[in-house]
């Protein structure tokens, strides 16, 4: 027997402040939430990241928080993903994880957190095991919402460039939303620019598939340990 609220679709439309918002129906919510949170790959350090615990100190951080909240409200009906870029310690990963947790808990949809450096290590590890590197890569490429964290923190080899290009190209072609965090810059000829590390073609794809959000502020890790 179909649910009376959603007629079996699993979705209902509600209005918040006069705006329409799609939310998962209660009939689907509890079962999916536990399953998806368990499979999300969010590290223990970040499991308590929330929008309300992110305290913006700059206009850049306020804008980033607002755009992440807007993405959450619209998801899964979004046209583009997000790139949170800027110096270390300004809350990029906190915002990305808070967004993913909200989508897992309150929309009952799948998503996955992947540290790009760890992904490269995991792929190399499969060379000596029965697990296929292609299987591992496809699990990352095909997830409905991907958080790709700390891109560019690793030593950039041609192989690492190929891995990122493969992921970006697949998700671009299949219109799968991706949220990227990186310390690299954009629109810059410097050595720490995204294009200098991963190539203009990959950067161009990212421009088309993501909204770029500059995040600047004080390094909260340093501030936390100052006496």
Strand content: 15-25%
Tally of separate domains: 2
User: What is the class of the largest domain in the CATH system?
Assistant: Alpha Beta
CA radius of gyration is 18 Å
Which topology of the largest domain does CATH recognise? Rossmann fold
CATH superfamily of the largest domain: P-loop containing nucleotide triphosphate hydrolases
Protein name: AAA family ATPase
GO molecular function: ATP binding
GO biological process, one term: DNA replication
InterPro entries: AAA+_ATPase, IstB_ATP-bd, P-loop_NTPase
Structure description:
The N and C termini lie far apart (62 Å). The mean pLDDT is 89. Helix 6 (158-173) links the parallel strand 5 (146-151) and strand 6 (178-182). The relative contact order is 0.15. It is globular, with a radius of gyration of 18 Å. It is built from nine helices and seven strands. It is of the alpha/beta class and 227 residues long. This is AAA family ATPase.
Task: Give the helices and strands, then pairings.
Elements lengths: L10 E6 L2 E6 L1 H13 L20 H16 L6 E5 L6 H15 L5 E4 H10 L7 H10 L3 E6 L6 H16 L4 E5 L11 H5 L1 H10 E5 L5 H5 L3
Parallel strand pairs: 3-6, 3-7, 4-5, 5-6
Antiparallel strand pairs: 1-2
């Amino acid at each position: 027997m179909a649910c009376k609220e959603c007629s079996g679709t699993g979705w209902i439309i509600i209005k918040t402040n006069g705006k329409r918002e799609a939310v998962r129906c209660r009939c689907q919510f509890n079962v999916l939430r536990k399953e998806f949170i368990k499979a999300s790959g969010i590290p223990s350090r970040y499991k308590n990241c929330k929008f309300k615990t992110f305290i913006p100190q700059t206009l850049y951080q306020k804008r980033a928080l607002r755009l992440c909240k807007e993405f959450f409200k619209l998801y899964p009906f979004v046209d583009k993903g997000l790139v949170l870029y800027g110096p270390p310690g300004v809350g990029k990963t906190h915002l990305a994880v808070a967004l993913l947790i909200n989508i897992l808990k309150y929309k009952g949809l799948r998503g996955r957190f992947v540290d790009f450096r760890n992904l490269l290590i995991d792929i190399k590890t499969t060379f000596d095991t029965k697990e296929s590197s292609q299987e591992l890569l496809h699990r990352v490429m095909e997830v409905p919402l991907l958080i790709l964290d700390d891109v560019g923190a690793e030593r950039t080899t041609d192989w690492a460039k190929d891995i990122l290009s493969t992921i970006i190209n697949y998700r671009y072609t299949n219109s799968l939303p991706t949220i990227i965090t990186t310390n690299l810059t954009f629109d810059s000829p410097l050595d720490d620019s995204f294009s200098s590390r991963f190539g203009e073609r990959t950067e161009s794809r990212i421009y088309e598939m993501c909204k770029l959000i500059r995040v600047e502020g004080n390094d909260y890790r340093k501030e936390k340990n100052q006496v």
